[in-house]
Amino acid sequence: MLSRTLLDQHYHDLNRLTLAIADVLAAQAAELPCQCVQVDEANVPGNPDDAPLAAEAINCVLDAVKVQKAVHFCFGNYGGQTIQKGAWPLSSNS
C-alpha cells in the first residue's frame, strides 16, 4: 500500500520501489524491542492482482523480525463502511 501512495521519481518501477521500501522496513523491524511486529496491508483486498508482490514485500519484512509476527489485511473500518470491494480468488487447492 505504501508504495502505491508515493510519487516514484527514482525507480520508475512499482516492483523495485515496493521491494526497496520492504528492505528499509526489514532493517528497522529487525531491531524493534517489542513482543510482536504486525504488518498492515490495506491495498491487497481491493487489488488481489497485487498479492504476489505484496507477499514478497511482507515476507521480506517478516523474515527479518525476531519476535512474534502478524499480518493484518484491512477490508473496511470500525464504523463498518466498506472502503474497498473485491473478492479473494479461490486457490486450485480449495
- Tell me, what's the shape? globular
Mean pLDDT: 85
The first-to-last residue Cα distance is: 27 Å
| Count of extended strands | 2
| Backbone CA Rg | 15 Å
- Contiguous low-pLDDT stretches (5 residues minimum) are none
Share in β-strands? 5-15%
Query: Within the largest sheet, what's the order of strands?
Result: 1-2
- Coarse structural class: alpha+beta
Order of helix and strand elements from N to C terminus: HEHE
Main sheet attributes: strand count, strand direction, barrel closure: 2 strands, parallel
Helical coverage, percent range: 25-40%
**Total number of helices:** 2
General description of the model:
The chain contains two helices and two strands. Helix 1 packs parallel to helix 2. Strand 1, helix 2 and strand 2 (68-73) form a beta-alpha-beta unit. It has helices at 14-29, 51-64; strands at 36-41, 68-73. The longest helix is centred in the first third of the chain and has 16 residues, at 14-29. The model has no long low-confidence stretch (mean pLDDT 85). A two-stranded parallel ribbon has the order 1-2.
